[in-house]
Design goal:
With 264 residues, the protein is α/β, with parallel strands linked by helices. The chain has two domains: 152 residues, Rossmann fold; 89 residues. The protein has eleven helices and nine strands. Strands 2-5-8-1-9 form a five-stranded parallel beta sheet. The structure holds adenosine-5'-diphosphate (ADP) and magnesium ion. Adenosine-5'-diphosphate (ADP) binds next to α2, α7 and α9.
Length: 264
C-alpha cells in the first residue's frame, strides 16, 4: 500500500497572475514583496505557493523588537556550553526554502542590513558572529509583506530596501472570487456568503469615515462561519464585523445601518 501522505495544498483562490509571478520570481532568485491590507490573503498565498513548489517555509512575524540576531541566530547556553543556534533566516539559507517576513516594516533597522546582501545579486548571508558567509542556494527565496495602509511615518520601507524586491499589490478580491473564498473557508452557501461580500463592498466604499481599514476577507469568513454554525446573521455581523472594526458608537451604528440596507 502506498502510505505516503502528501500534505494538502493550502487552499488559495488566485486573483490575477500572482501564482505565475511568484513561480517566475522563485525560479530566477528574485525576492518578492507583497503589499496589501490586513486579511486579504497574503499569508495564505505564500503558504500555498511554498507547498506547490515543495519548499520549506520559514515564517517570521516581524515586530518592533525583532532584530537581526532573531533572524540570523545567536549563541545560547546549553548544558554549560555555548552553542550557536541558527535563526529562521539562516535555516532557510542553509536548507533552501522560503523565508517569509510578515510585516517587515515593523522589524528593527538592523534587519535591513542583513537583507540587503541577500536580496541583490550577491545572495549572501553574512554571519558576523560565526565569521560565516553563506551563499544562498537556488531554492532560497525571500518573501516579505507589508501593509501600506498603516500610514506610520516612522515606519516606512526605505527605497533602498523596496527597490530590491519584485512587488505585487494585493487588494480584496473581486466579489465573485471573494464569495468563492468565503464559501470554501466557512462552508456557508453562496447566496448568504454573497450577501456578506456585498456588505463588505459597502463598508469598504466607506473607508475614510473613521474606519482605519475596510473589512477584511478574514472577518467575512468569521461572520460566515458563525452563520454557517447556526448563528443569526445580525448577531454574526455584530460580533465579526461591527465590533472588530470600530469602538465608536456612531461608526458602529453606521455599520449596522449598512447591514440593514443589504439585508433589508
Ligand atoms: N485568495 C484567497 N484564497 C483563499 N483564501 C483566502 C484568499 N484571500 C483570503 N483568504 C482567507 O482569508 C484569511 C486571511 O488571509 P491571510 O492570508 O491571513 O491575510 P493577510 O496575510 O493578507 O493578512 C485566510 O486565512 C484565508 O482563509
Ligand atoms: Mg498575514
Amino acid at each position: 500500500m502506498n502510505a505516503i501522505s502528501t500534505p494538502a495544498l493550502p487552499f488559495y483562490e488566485p486573483v490575477a497572475d500572482e501564482c505565475d509571478l511568484f513561480q517566475t520570481a522563485h525560479a530566477n532568485g528574485l525576492p518578492l514583496l507583497l503589499k496589501g491590507p490586513t486579511g486579504c490573503g497574503k499569508t495564505r498565498f505564500v503558504e500555498h505557493m511554498a507547498a506547490r513548489l515543495g519548499l520549506p517555509l520559514f515564517t517570521v512575524a516581524c515586530h518592533d523588537d525583532l532584530s537581526a540576531a532573531d533572524l540570523i541566530g545567536r549563541y545560547l547556553l546549553k548544558g554549560g556550553e555555548t552553542v550557536w543556534v541558527d535563526g529562521p533566516l539562516t535555516r532557510a539559507v542553509r536548507q533552501g526554502g522560503i523565508c517569509y517576513l510578515d510585516e517587515v516594516v515593523e522589524a528593527r533597522k538592523d534587519v535591513t542590513v542583513v537583507l540587503h546582501p541577500l536580496t541583490d545579486d550577491r545572495r549572501r548571508l553574512i554571519i558576523d558572529r560565526t565569521g560565516e558567509e553563506l551563499v544562498a542556494p537556488k531554492d532560497f527565496m525571500v518573501v516579505a509583506s507589508f501593509n501600506p495602509g498603516y500610514q506610520n511615518i516612522l515606519k516606512k520601507l526605505k527605497p533602498s530596501t523596496r527597490q530590491r524586491f519584485v512587488s505585487i499589490g494585493f487588494d480584496f478580491p473581486a466579489p465573485e472570487v471573494e464569495t468563492a473564498v468565503v464559501v470554501a473557508e466557512s462552508g456557508l452557501d453562496a447566496a448568504r456568503a454573497g450577501a456578506l461580500v456585498r456588505l463588505a463592498g459597502h463598508i469598504r466604499a466607506l473607508s475614510g469615515m473613521d474606519l482605519e481599514e475596510g473589512v477584511s476577507t478574514r472577518l467575512l469568513i468569521y461572520a460566515a462561519t458563525l452563520v454557517a454554525r447556526g448563528m443569526k446573521v445580525e448577531r454574526a455581523i455584530e460580533a465579526a464585523i461591527v465590533e472588530p472594526l470600530s469602538d465608536e458608537p456612531d461608526v458602529q451604528q453606521a455599520l449596522r445601518d449598512l447591514a440593514a440596507s443589504v439585508y433589508g
